[in-house]
Amino acid sequence: MSIAAAPQSPVRSPDRATETQTRLTAVPAPLPAPVAPRLPFVVLVSMLLVGGVVGLLVFNTSMQQSAFQEQRLQEQATTLAAREQALDGELKKMEDPHKIAAKAKNLGMVIPQNAAMLRVPEAKIEGEAAPADRSATPPLHPKVAKPYSVLVAEQKAAEAAAAKKKAAELAEKKRAQEAEEKQRTSSGEAR
To answer: pLDDT (tens digit, 9 = 90+) per residue, 38-72?
Structure first.
């Protein structure tokens, strides 16, 4: 308990013999800070912070997984596009009329001399059908050769691809040698 001085009352006249005395009164001690109401607030703020951090971690992880999946799908799409191009090229080669005619000839197929036409609505046959023989089938013409400029361009492209492949192999070999030297020097320093 602390003691405080009460205000003095002014002296009214100098002839008064009694002097005003200071009154002392008791002041109550300060109350302790309330701990109980702060505890739920602290717990709430802590839970919000922990929840926010966990939420950020989960979000970041899911974004990383999405990025990896996107990369896998992109690689798969690139591979499928290359495969589609290759299959399209093969299909164009198979659709070549010269190849189709050569395969038909190898199978023994021939062009008929006289073809008959059947008109379904009138139920009439126009022309006279005759059996086909090899004499009616003309010889196949050889496939037209590519122009010289195309052949030169293809040859240059093949040479450039070979040079690029060789340069990549040399670079890989050099990296392997550097890695081997680095490993030897680090194992030498460790001893």
So the answer is: 888 889 999 999 999 999 999 999 999 999 999 99
Confirm whether 54 is domain-assigned: yes
0.70 cut: is pTM over it?
no
Q: Which amino acid is at 171?
A: A
What is residue 125's three-state secondary structure?
strand
In a domain, 86, yes or no: yes
1 vs 12: CA distance, rounded Å: 33
- Burial class of residue 40, CB neighbours in 10 A (0-12, 13-18, 19+): exposed
The helix/strand/coil state of 95 is: coil
End-to-end CA distance of the chain: 76
Domain that holds residue 80: 47-123
How many domains does the chain contain in total? 1
> CA nearest 100: which of 140, 135, 134?
140
Q: Is residue 51 part of a domain?
A: yes
Strands (E), the chain: 2-5, 24-27, 117-119, 124-126
pLDDT in tens, 82-131: 999 999 999 988 888 888 888 888 888 887 777 788 888 898 888 888 77
What does residue 147 show for φ and ψ, rounded to 5 degrees? -65, 155
Mean pLDDT across the chain, nearest whole number? 82
> Is the residue at 76 inside a domain?
yes
